């Protein structure tokens, strides 16, 4: 009994030890199941009898679990569960035989596990597992119970478990040691790899650790630093300061790092923080110092601060407002200047402001939103072009701003931020508007001045022409009157040209091509300048080579060549020769004007610039400049070549035209001919309305009575009174008149015609030849438009009912499906023409979307002239209608008409 107690106690102690191993290492289930098995065995030994046997039988499941854990696997765990279920059931019903049979099965399982472990570990200690498993059915379950088995039990249940637990403890300790070493190496590697200088000093101020970054920062190796103190490496003042910082960190306690502080060493700057370090027992070990090199960052911060100051200065001086819109938060930052622009205080709270687009003027909002949306979503450009629109101020009034911005995009190209600058341009817009009004006023003054000049000139031209045609004059008298008429035409052309040059500079001049015989123009120029050349004893020598009919305008060609020949005469030396050579070959016509003089090398590079003169007395520097303008507007070019020996040659090159090419709208100045063919006039009541007595006199002389019955009126009001007394068949109506002008008179005459239900033709006849005057006259009720001085044949043709309607009316009669009859000379340029017209058409809706109605009008005007030049009559009429409707037309209707024009260009037949 005593031996059983000793054996049972030893087994129980071993069971307790196994459980404690598990408690210390929760992952070690081998120790747990072994401990539970030994508890059952110890209970069986100590209790004996039936209860002891039941306790011994309950050890079967734990032995199976032990074996499954020693050599784990899926089938092993399933087998252990099955043994456990059967064994518990057998123990409950006292089935000792079943338990013994299962126990012997475990012996075989243990043998297999022992062999496997022995092979893996190359040692035979796993044999103790088989011994322990074999002793269980023999000793504990009583299958074989010889006397004096206590030594065998001691070996099986004390020594064998001891061996197993010892081996596991040794392996665990080895694993812990390796883990500790690995963790130490890992910690060292981590500390060495971080870009932060780490150092630790103990309570005596001696270095116990520094990492690689610390070595790099401070230029000292750790082997030379560890064990030393700042007192050994720095001045007393520096060491005292460092140790004082350490003491402050120690006083703050663990887990209380000191606030980051700047530290300077030489030309380097560092940001340092200190933390008191303790061991697992809470005992202070020393101070850990962490340092980051902030030298570059500090330099960048200083540079950034300087750039910010510069930017702030630029923004302040330029008075720009800034808007920063964040797409992620859909929030906006408004700079103080932006708030001031809108009439708010610089520090005003904007958190309650409405959405930015709600600040836009209702007329500007759609186009601005569309442009912004296209930039953010449809474009990948960073910069947004400048845009003018109106914003609502704090007082409810609107101001004009100009905004331009830049998008900050992510890697996928999506805009995440939009930063814009805004400038208050209200004053500038007001100045521009005032300038436009001033320009308009200037144009009106110039138009009226030209009208006032042209009225007496028309009379001079008409009277001289009537005298030549109606009187029997001598050859000398007829020549004198011809000179008067030609001089009148020259002055009239100069008056017209004054405005034309302005239009050429602005790019709004409409070239009206016609077939011009340059040889004839050169002869006229030479004849007119003959006296000036004779005053210097200069000879004008004319030469011609080939046919010289150019695609040009006669008035422009005359003015251009007259300028150049006059300059050549002035530049030629006394007794020199000015040679004018006209050449025509193939598709080009050229005129070369040569004089023996030389242009100063200083002036040559700027010869064609405005106000550049060669130093001649009274020169204003506009001759060559205007001549080049006139050449280019006629699709030609003017060049200059000057050398000391050969002299100076100016060459005008223009496109050739067919001899039969008709003029387009503006005919050349007519020359009188006694043999004019005049139509037969019917009997008509003609009301002549003109405020100039000389013009009325000219009409009396030009219009035969009979068959005509003439009535004269001095203004529109007098014309209405005369029409009420005796309603006319035809009205010849001047437009610029006092009391009531011709535009108003035409409208009232139409109303009177409606009341009386009588036919009436109104023919406007005015000195104004600009398209705006023609448009206005036709819109006021006039049927036709003649430009003074109207030749007798044109006036008679209009009275006889011949077709003299201006080009615009012909265009209006054109149909969208009418083919285009293209001049053969224009066919080569047609592709470029159509491409450029489509590009201009694309700009129309863009201008409309941006709210720029003036740009829309200018584009439509430009398109109208170019379409008419190339024979696109319907397109020209549509563009003129767009020009008229640009200011007040509905945007949707204008866009629809532009789209119709694009379709027309794609489908129209060109012959």
DSSP strand count:
22
Which of globular, elongated, flat, extended, rod-shaped describes the shape?
elongated
For the report, how would you describe the main beta sheet?
Answer: 5 strands, antiparallel
**What radius of gyration results from the CA coordinates?**
56 Å
Q: Looking across the biggest beta sheet, what order are the strands in?
A: 2-1-5-4-3
Average residue-wise pLDDT: 77
Low-confidence parts, pLDDT < 50 over ≥5 residues?
Answer: 659-676, 803-812
Q: What share of residues is helical?
A: 40-55%
Describe the structure.
This protein has 911 residues and is α+β, with helices and mostly antiparallel strands. Strands 2-1-5-4-3 form a 5-stranded antiparallel β-sheet. Helix 28 runs antiparallel to helix 31 (891-907). The longest helix has 45 residues, at 426-470.
Question: Key terms for this structure?
Answer:
911 residues, five-stranded antiparallel β-sheet, alpha+beta, elongated, 54% helix, 31 helices
List strands and helices in order, with pairings.
Blueprint: H1 2-24, H2 29-47, H3 49-57, H4 59-70, H5 74-92, H6 96-121, H7 127-140, H8 150-193, E1 197-202, E2 207-210, H9 212-218, H10 222-225, H11 230-233, H12 236-252, E3 261-265, E4 268-278, E5 284-293, H13 295-318, E6 321-326, E7 331-334, H14 336-341, H15 365-378, E8 383-392, E9 398-409, E10 415-424, H16 426-470, H17 475-506, E11 514-517, H18 518-528, H19 530-535, E12 539-545, E13 549-552, H20 554-571, E14 577-585, E15 588-595, H21 623-633, E16 637-643, E17 647-655, E18 684-689, H22 693-702, E19 708-713, H23 716-725, E20 730-733, H24 742-756, E21 761-766, H25 771-780, E22 784-787, H26 792-800, H27 807-813, H28 830-849, H29 853-869, H30 873-885, H31 891-907
Parallel strand pairs: 12-14, 18-19, 18-20, 20-21, 21-22
Antiparallel strand pairs: 1-2, 1-5, 3-4, 4-5, 6-7, 6-10, 8-9, 9-10, 11-13, 14-15, 15-17, 16-17
Helix pairs in contact: 1-2, 1-8, 2-3, 2-4, 4-5, 4-6, 5-6, 6-7, 7-8, 16-17, 16-22, 18-20, 20-21, 23-24, 27-30, 28-29, 28-31, 29-30, 30-31
């Amino acid at each position: 009994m005593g031996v059983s107690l000793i054996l049972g106690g030893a087994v129980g102690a071993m069971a307790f030890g196994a459980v404690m191993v598990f408690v210390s290492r929760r992952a070690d289930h081998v120790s747990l199941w072994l401990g539970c098995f030994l508890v059952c065995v110890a209970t069986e030994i100590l209790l004996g009898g039936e209860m002891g046997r039941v306790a011994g039988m309950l050890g079967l499941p734990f032995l199976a679990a032990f074996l499954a854990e020693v050599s784990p696997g899926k089938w092993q765990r399933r087998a252990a569960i099955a043994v456990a279920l059967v064994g518990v059931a057998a123990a409950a019903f006292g089935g000792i035989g079943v338990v013994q049979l299962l126990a012997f099965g475990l012996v075989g399982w243990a043998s297999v596990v022992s062999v496997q472990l022995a092979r893996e570990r190359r040692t035979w200690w796993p044999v103790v597992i088989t011994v322990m498993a074999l002793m269980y059915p023999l000793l504990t379950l009583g299958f074989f119970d010889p006397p004096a088995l206590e030594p065998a039990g001691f070996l099986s249940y004390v020594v064998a478990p001891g061996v197993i637990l010892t081996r596991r403890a040794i392996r665990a300790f080895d694993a812990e040691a390796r883990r500790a070493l690995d963790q130490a190496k890992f910690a060292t590697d981590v500390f060495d790899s971080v870009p932060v200088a780490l150092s630790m000093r103990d309570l005596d101020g001696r270095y116990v650790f520094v990492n690689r970054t610390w070595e790099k920062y401070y230029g000292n190796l750790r082997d030379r630093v560890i064990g030393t103190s700042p007192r050994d490496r720095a001045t007393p003042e520096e060491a005292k300061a460092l140790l004082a910082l350490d003491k402050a960190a120690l006083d703050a306690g663990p887990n209380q790092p000191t606030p980051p502080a700047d530290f300077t060493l030489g030309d380097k700057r560092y940001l340092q923080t200190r933390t008191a370090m303790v061991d697992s027992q809470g005992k202070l070990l020393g101070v850990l110092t962490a340092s980051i090199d902030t030298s570059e960052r500090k330099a960048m911060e200083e540079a950034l601060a300087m750039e910010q100051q510069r930017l702030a200065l630029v923004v302040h001086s330029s008075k720009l407002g800034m808007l920063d819109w964040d797409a992620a938060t859909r929030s906006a930052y408004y700079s103080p200047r932006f708030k001031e622009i809108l009439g708010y205080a610089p520090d005003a709270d904007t958190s309650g402001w409405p959405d930015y687009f709600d600040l836009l003027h209702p007329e500007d909002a759609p186009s601005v939103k569309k442009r912004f949306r296209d930039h953010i979503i449809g474009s990948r450009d960073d910069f947004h072009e400048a845009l003018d629109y109106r914003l609502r101020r704090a007082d409810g009034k609107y101001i004009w701003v100009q905004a331009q911005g830049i998008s900050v995009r992510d890697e996928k190209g999506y805009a995440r931020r939009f930063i814009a600058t805004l400038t208050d341009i209200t004053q500038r817009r007001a100045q521009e508007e005032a300038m436009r009004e001033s320009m308009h006023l200037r144009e009106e003054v110039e138009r009226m001045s030209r009208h006032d000049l042209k009225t007496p000139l028309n009379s001079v031209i008409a009277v001289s022409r009537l005298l030549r045609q109606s009187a029997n004059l001598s050859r000398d008298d007829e020549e004198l009157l011809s000179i008067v008429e030609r001089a009148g035409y020259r002055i009239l052309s100069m008056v017209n040209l004054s405005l034309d040059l302005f239009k050429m500079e602005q790019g709004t001049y409409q070239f009206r091509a016609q077939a011009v015989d340059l040889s004839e123009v050169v002869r006229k120029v030479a004849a007119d300048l003959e006296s000036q050349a004779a005053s210097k004893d200069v000879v004008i020598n004319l030469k011609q080579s080939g046919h010289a009919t150019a695609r040009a305008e006669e008035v422009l060609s005359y003015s251009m060549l007259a300028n150049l020949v006059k300059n050549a005469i002035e530049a030629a030396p006394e007794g020199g020769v000015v040679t004018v050579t006209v050449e025509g070959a193939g598709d080009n016509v050229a005129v070369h004007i040569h004089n023996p003089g030389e242009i100063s090398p200083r002036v040559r590079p700027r010869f064609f610039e405005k106000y550049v003169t060669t130093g001649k007395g009274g020169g204003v520097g506009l001759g060559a400049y205007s001549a080049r303008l006139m050449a280019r507007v006629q699709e030609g070019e003017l060049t200059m070549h000057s050398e000391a020996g050969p002299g100076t040659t100016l060459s005008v090159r223009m496109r050739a035209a067919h001899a039969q090419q008709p003029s387009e709208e503006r005919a050349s100045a007519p020359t009188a001919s006694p043999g004019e063919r005049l139509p037969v006039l019917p009997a008509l009541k003609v009301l002549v309305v003109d405020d100039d007595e000389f013009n009325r006199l000219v009409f009396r002389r030009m219009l035969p009575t009979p068959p005509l019955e003439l009535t004269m009126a001095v203004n529109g009001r007098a014309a209405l009174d005369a029409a009420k007394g005796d309603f006319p068949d035809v009205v010849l109506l001047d437009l610029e008149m006092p009391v009531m002008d011709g535009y108003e008179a035409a409208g009232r005459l139409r109303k009177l015609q409606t009341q009386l239900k009588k036919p009436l033709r109104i023919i406007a006849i005015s000195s104004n030849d600009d398209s705006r005057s023609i448009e206005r006259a036709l819109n006021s009720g006039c049927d036709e438009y003649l430009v003074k001085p109207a030749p007798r044949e044109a006036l008679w043709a209009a009275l006889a009912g011949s077709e003299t309607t201006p080009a615009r009316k012909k265009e209006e009669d054109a149909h969208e499906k009418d083919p285009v009859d293209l001049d053969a000379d224009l066919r080569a340029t047609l592709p470029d023409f159509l491409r450029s017209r489509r590009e201009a058409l694309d700009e129309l809706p863009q201008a409309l979307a941006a709210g720029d109605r003036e740009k829309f009008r200018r584009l439509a005007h430009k398109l109208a002239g170019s379409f008419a030049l190339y024979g696109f009559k319907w397109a020209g009429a549509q563009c003129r209608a767009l020009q008229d409707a640009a200011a007040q037309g509905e945007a949707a209707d204008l866009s629809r008409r532009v789209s119709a024009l694009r379709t027309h260009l794609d489908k129209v037949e060109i012959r």
